[in-house]
Write a structure and sequence with these properties.
single chain; alpha+beta; OB fold (Dihydrolipoamide Acetyltransferase, E2P); five-stranded mixed beta barrel; 2 helices; CSD domain-containing protein; NA-bd_OB-fold; cytoplasm
C-alpha cells in the first residue's frame, strides 16, 4: 500500500474510537491542515503503526483523546486517506505513554524503588502495610472453636460463618 503525504501542516483530531485488539480506529478532525482536503468533522482512519511514541511500548489511542497528525493518501486501500505521525497535542505524550509511565512508576515503588528521585534516597526500605479488611474475623483458639461446636448440637461438622444474618454489616 503506497501512501503520499497530503498536507505539510499538522492537523488536530479527537479519537472517535480505537480497537486495541485489532490496532486501528478513527479520528474526527477538529482542526484542518489548511489545504482544505479534509473538513472539520470528517473522519480519518488511523492504524497503530502510525502512532508515534518516544519509547517503544504497546501503542494505542484512548477514546476522546486529542491528537495531532499528518494525513496521507492511500493507493488501493479500503480508505482514501489515513492519519500518519500521530502524536499528542503540540508533540506531547499520548495517553498510552502516560499510562505506561504511571504503571512503571507504581511497579517500581511496589518493588522498593522510589522512582527517579535518587537524591532523596535515605536508605529506608519500603515496608508494606498490612490492613485487616472489614470482613476478616478475629482469630479464635481451638478451645473456643470446639466448645462452640458442642453447644450447637454436638455434631463434629465444622461450622462456618455465612453471609447475611444479624451479625453481617
Amino acid at each position: 500500500m503506497a501512501t503520499t503525504a497530503v498536507s505539510g501542516q499538522k492537523m488536530a483530531g479527537c479519537v472517535k474510537w480505537f480497537n486495541m485488539k485489532t490496532g486501528f480506529g478513527f479520528l474526527t478532525v477538529v482542526r484542518g491542515g489548511g489545504s482544505g482536503e479534509l473538513k472539520v468533522g470528517s473522519e480519518v482512519f488511523v492504524h497503530h503503526s502510525n502512532v508515534k511514541v518516544q519509547e517503544e511500548q504497546y501503542r494505542f489511542l484512548v477514546q476522546g483523546e486529542y491528537v495531532e497528525f499528518d494525513v496521507s493518501n492511500v493507493a488501493n486501500g479500503q480508505h482514501s486517506c489515513q492519519a500518519t505521525n500521530v502524536t499528542g497535542m503540540f508533540g506531547g505524550k499520548l495517553m498510552c505513554e502516560t499510562r505506561n509511565d504511571a504503571r512503571q512508576s507504581s511497579s517500581s515503588q511496589q518493588q522498593g524503588g522510589r522512582g527517579n528521585d535518587e537524591e532523596e534516597s535515605d536508605g529506608d526500605a519500603y515496608v508494606p502495610v498490612l490492613r485487616r479488611t472489614a470482613s476478616s474475623a478475629a482469630p479464635t483458639t481451638s478451645a473456643q472453636s470446639s466448645s462452640s461446636f458442642r453447644s450447637r448440637g454436638g455434631d463434629d461438622a465444622p461450622r462456618t460463618r455465612g453471609r447475611g444474618g444479624a451479625g453481617h454489616r
